[in-house]
Amino acid sequence: MTPLRALLAVLAVSAALVLQVSVFPYVAWQGVVPNLVLLVVVGAAVVRGAQFAMVLGFAAGVLLDLAPPADHVAGRWALAFVVVGYVAGRVAQHGRPTATTVLATVAASSFLGTSLFALSGLVLRDPPLTIPDLLQVVVVSVVWDVVLTPFVLPLVMAMFHRIEPERAAVQ
Amino acid sequence: MRRPDLGRERRWRSDSDGDGQPPRALVVALVLACATLMTLDHSTGEDSPVDGARRAMGEVYGPVEVGAAGAVRPFVAIPEWFRSRGDMRDEIDELEAENAELRSSVATSGYDRNKLAEYDGLTAAAGTLGYALVPARVVGMGASQSFSSTVTIDAGASSGLRPDMTVVNNDGLVGRVLRVTRTTATVLLVIDADSVVGGRVGDSMEIGMLHGRGVLGDEGRLDLELIDQSVVPARGDTVVTWGSESGAPYVSGVPVGSISKVFANVRDGSQRAVIDPFVDFGALDLVGVVVPSGTESDRAVIEADGSLQ
After folding, report:
1. Is A147 an interface residue toward B (CB < 8 Å)?
2. What's the confidence (pLDDT) of residue B181?
3. How far, in whole angstroms, is CA A157 from its chain's centroid?
4. What are phi and psi of A169, to 5 degrees?
5. Which chain A residues are closer than 8 Å to B10 by Cβ?
6. What percentage of residues in chain B have a pLDDT greater than 90?
7. CA B4/CA A157 separation, integer angstroms
8. Domains of chain B by residue range
9. Does the bond joining B74 to the residue before it have cis omega, within 30 degrees of 0?
10. Looking at chain B, which residue has its C-alpha nearest residue A164?
11. Chain A CB within 8 Å of residue B209 CB
12. Contact A93/A168 with Cβ under 8 angstroms?
C-alpha cells in the first residue's frame, strides 16, 4: 500500500462523506440518508479482504465522527465500521462475489453497522432515545443502502481493483 | 475438479495471512483505539481534547461541503421549474413570507400583550432590538443514522459567528451554534435529544424547559415541562424562548412552536406538553444567526430595523 494508494482510498471515503452530508439530505426519508461511507468500506472488504477493510473502516469512521456536522461521541462510527470491515471481509472470502452475495453482504453490514452505532449510543446515553426510534432508523437505512448498492458498489469495487490490482482478487 | 477451487481460494486469501483471518493484534489495536477515543470524548465532556480535532476536520471539510451544496443547489431547484413559472414562483415566495410573518405576529400577540403589561418585559424587548442577523445557508445535514440533529451552515468565524449564538429562520427558532470554523459553523437543532431550551407559554407567561425528542421528519417534536407543575397549558398556545443572560445561547421572544398535546403525569401531578415546532427541520435552507448589533462580518448583516449593513 503506497501513500498514493492510501490517499486515493481516503479521497473515496471523503467523497462519500460529502455526498452523504451535503447532497443526499435532499432525498432523505425521515432524515435517513444512504450510508455511502459504509458502502465504500463494504466494497473494500469484498475486494481486498478483512484486514484492509478494518483499517479503512477505522479511518472512515473517525472521519464521519469528526467532520461537521457530527456531534456525537467520537469513535462510535469508527467502532461500527471496524466490525463491519471485519465481518464483510470474512464473509466475502468464502466465495466469488456475485450480485446476490454482495447485496446480502451490504444488507447485513448496514444492519450491523447502524445497530452497533445505535447500541454504543444506548450504552453511552448519547443521545437518550427509545428503541422503536432506533429500530425504525436501522430498517430505513438498510433499505436505502440496498437500493444504492447497484449504483455505488460496482464503482467502488472497480476502484479498489484498479488502485492495487496485484493484491485484489482476480475476477 | 479440485485445482480451480484451490486457485480461487488462494487468490481470495492473498490479502491477509493464512486463512484470511486478519492478525489478532490489528483487531485488538483497532477496537482499543475506538474504545479509547470514545472514553476520551465521553468522559471529558465539554472541553474534550477531541474538540480540537473536530475543529481541524471542520476547517478541511467545511469548505468542501459548502462547495458541494452550492453545486447541487441549482439541480435541486429543477423540479420547481416544472411546477410553476418564474413569476408565479416569486409570487408564492412573497406570499409565503408574508404569511409566515402574519402567522408569527398572530402567534406571539398573546406573548407581546403580556410582555407589555409587565414592565420587565419592556427591557427584554429593548434587549432584543439590539440584535442583528447574519444570513447563512444550510450546507450539510447530519444523517438520522447518527441519531443527532445537527447541521452545518456556510457562515463561520469570519462572518462574526461564535459558539452559543441563536439560530432562527423566518418561521421561528432553529437552534444554537455549537462550534465554528473560519468559514462554517455547526448548529445543534432544538429537536436534538441533547437540546434544552428555556420556553415560555405566550398566553400564560408560564416558564418551562423544552427538551428535544431527537427525531427528524414529520415527528420532529419537543417536550415542554413547566416549572410550576400545577398549571395546565392549553392546546394551541404558542411557546417562545424566555432567553438567557446576555442572549447566549438563546435570545428571548423567538417563537418555537405551538402546544399540540398535553399529558398529565398521574403519579406526581406534573404536566408534560408536546410542542409542534414552527420550523420545518426536514427542509432547512436559509437561516439567520443572531449576532450583537454592529458585529464585524464579511457578509451583509441584517439589522433589527431591516436595514443591511
Report:
1. no
2. 92
3. 13
4. -70, 135
5. none
6. 15
7. 23
8. 50-309
9. no
10. B15
11. no
12. no
Neighbours of B108 (CB within 10 A): 18
Q: Does A133 touch chain B (CB under 8 A)?
A: yes
- One-letter amino acid identity for A153? L
Q: Are strands B255-264 and B271-277 parallel, antiparallel or unpaired?
A: antiparallel
Structure confidence at residue B266 as a pLDDT band (50, 70, 90): confident
Instruction: List B residues 120-139 in contact with A (Cβ-Cβ < 8 A).
Output: 139
Q: Is the pLDDT reported for residue B113 higher than 80?
A: no
Which amino acid, B144? S
For B34, which of A72, A79, A93 is closest by C-beta distance? A79
Per-residue model confidence (pLDDT) at position B15: 43
**Mean pLDDT in residue range B70-80:** 78
Would you kindly state where each structural domain of chain A is located, as residue ranges? 33-163
Residue B111 in contact with residue B240, Cβ under 8 Å? Answer: yes
ipTM: 0.85
Residue B93's pLDDT is what? 79
**CB < 8 Å to A35, chain B:** 143, 145
Average pLDDT over residues A90-100: 81
Is the four-CA dihedral A111, B57, B186, B69 of positive or negative sign? negative
Query: How confident is the model over B134-152, as pLDDT tens digits?
Result: 888 899 888 888 888 899 9
Question: Is pLDDT larger for residue B85 or for residue B285?
Answer: B285
Q: Is A103 exposed, middle or buried (0-12, 13-18, 19+ CB in 10 A)?
A: middle
For A40, the grid coordinates are 465504500
Answer yes or no: do B20 and A89 touch at CB < 8 A.
Answer: yes
Evaluate whether A168 touches A156 at the Cβ level (below 8 Å). Answer: no
Cα–Cα dist A169/B194, whole Å: 46
CATH architecture of A33-163: Orthogonal Bundle (1.10)
Instruction: With cut-offs at 50, 70 and 90, classify the pLDDT of residue B30.
Output: very high
Q: How many CA atoms lie within 13 A of B205 on its CB side?
A: 9
Across the interface, whether the CB atoms of B76 and A133 are under 8 A apart is answered no
CB contact under 8 A, B20 and A70: no
B86-93 contact pairs (CB < 8 A, 24+) = none
